[in-house]
Every structure is written in C-alpha cells, then in structure tokens.
Amino acid sequence: MTPDQRTPFSSTEWLAIFGIILVWGLNNAAAKLATEALPPLFIGGMRFLIALIVLTPFLRPPWPPWRQMLPLVLLAGPLHFGLVYVAFSMVHNLSPIVVALQLWIPMTAAFSWLVLRETMPKSAIAGMAVAFVGVVWMSLDPHGAADLGGLMIGILASALWALATVLMRRAPGVRPLKMQALTSLAAAPVLLAASFAFEPDVVARASTASPFVWMLVAFAAVASTVGATGLLFWLVQRREAGRVTPWFLLTPLVSCAIGVGLMGDTVTPQLVFGGLATMAGVALVALSERRLRRPAPAV
Predict the structure, then answer these.
(1) Contact criterion met (CB below 8 Å) for 115 and 122
(2) Are 165 and 108 in contact (CB under 8 A)?
(3) How confident is the model at residue 195 (pLDDT cuts 50, 70, 90)?
(4) 190/82 Cα distance (integer angstroms)
C-alpha cells in the first residue's frame, strides 16, 4: 500500500535511500577502475548483459507500448551509460566527474519545464545557474581542464538521463524490475555491438582482465542496475520525487571520499570550491522542486 505523501519515511524507506547512496557511490569508483582495464562500451554492454540474465524472469507480458518505451529505454540505457563509461575512461580524477554527473537533477527540472510545461520557480533557475558555474569553475583549474573532454561527455550523459526521467513520468506504469529488464534488453546488444565495431582489442583486453575487474562489472550489474535503481523506482512510486531526490546528493560524498582517500585524486581549492558550488546549486534545484510539490495545508 502506498503511504500518504506527507508521512515520515519508514525505516525500510530510509534503508533503501542510504543503500542507494552507498551503492551508487561505490559504483562510481568501480566504474573508474574498470575502465582502466576494459573498453568503456564493452563494460556497459557486459553490465547490462549480466543484469538481463538476472532479470529475465521479469520479461513477461503484458508489454507496454513500444512507441513510448523505446525512446525511454534507449536514453536510459545504451546512450546514457555508454557516455558515462566513456567519460570515466577519459578522466584522471574521479571527484569532478562524479560531481558533474549530478547535473541531471537541475536538467530534469529544465526538461520538465520545456517538455511537460511544469512550473520552474526562480530558486530553481538560480540553482541551475550556480551548478553550471561550479562545473565551469572546476574545469578552469589545471587539473580539471585536463579532464574537460570527459566532463563534457559526462554532462551530455546527464542531459540524456534527465530527459529519460521526464519521459518516464509520461510512460505507462511499469514495475521497477520489469523496467530495468526492458532497459537491459535494449542496452546490452547495442553497447556490445558498438564496442566490437569501434573499440580495439576487445577480446584481448577482456581475456586478460583480472577477476577483480570482472567483479566490479558484476557489482555494477547486480548491485546498481538491479538493486539500487530498482529501489529508486520503488521509492518514487511510493513518494514524490522531490522528497527523495535531495538525499542522493550525498552520493558524491561517498565517491569523492574514495577518490581522494584511495585513488589519489588531486585536490585543489578551485576544484573544491567548484564542486561545492555545483552541489549547492543542485541542492537548491532539488529542494525547490520539493517545496513546489509539497501539498497545501488543509484549511
């Protein structure tokens, strides 16, 4: 039974929220490590192939209208994740790209305004401006500038995910794991075909990858694609997205802590300031949406 939108989160919902934050934070670090050993499109394809095997029992009728679902699963699957893994393969530091990927939150607000004609408060517009200025400021740092190409691809990936999120609001109701199964069904063959067409030495690199690297790919497939994203869909079906989304701003803290503490990320005051500005802008957009969607008090 769906709870009243105004009631506090249950202990199960809190566990789901912080489970998603932890899994996504770890998965960002896993993606960066995996792309140092395997081609990025191949990683994406294998991630969704493993997820598809796990989710095969959910590929059963009735089927949603493919005219509505095909653009959604292509955006949320091969296009978004293909670009994400390419971006991770191009950057040297984990922290800036993880922060830049959070731009999907303000971009979702923008696409909601453009596509769905939803209201965009002035605070959300201000938050978007602050967030983008923060990314620009990070990219002007010498260490950030070295990763500029990857950051730009990451921002494009964020835009595609934001558009998919908006299209999901208009799509017919599909259960979370079935949605992930359909996305995996579209993403696995597309990404693997693109990998073998455009990436060199795929077989050689795959055969020499360590078991640890393959564990990272499996973690992305099972823990992130099936587990965390399925929990996300479950949460937004029970609660307003504006109540849930702001908590995921803690995800970069997990990833950045791993990047700085274990992966040797270079930290400069300019990168820190730009990252904090980006996160502050994203938070402002997320909280503006939450206030906008809060039910009016009874009179």
Answers:
(1) no
(2) yes
(3) very high
(4) 10
Q: Between the CA of residue 122 and those of 108, 111, 126, 223, 288, what are the distances in Å?
A: 15, 15, 6, 37, 9
End-to-end Cα separation, the chain, in angstroms: 26
Tell me which amino acid residue 236 is: V
Rounded distance between C-alpha atoms, residue 106 and residue 33, angstroms: 28
Q: What is the pTM of this model?
A: 0.85
Q: Tens digits of per-residue pLDDT, 24-76?
A: 999 999 999 999 999 999 999 999 999 999 999 999 888 888 888 888 899 98
Q: Tell me the C-alpha to C-alpha distance, in Å, between residue 5 and each of 175, 286, 295, 296.
A: 20, 17, 8, 12
- What letter would DSSP give residue 100? H
Distance from C-alpha of 268 to C-alpha of 265, rounded to nearest angstrom: 10
Confidence band of 295 (pLDDT split at 50, 70, 90)? very low
In angstroms, the CA 121 to CA 117 distance is 12
User: Has residue 4 got a pLDDT over 70?
Assistant: no
The contacts of residue 88 (CB under 8 Å, 6+ apart) are 28, 31, 32, 35, 40, 97, 150
C-alpha distances (whole Å) from 214 to each of 17, 221, 243, 267 are 26, 11, 35, 29
How far lies 92's CA from each of 100, 129, 148, in Å?
14, 26, 10
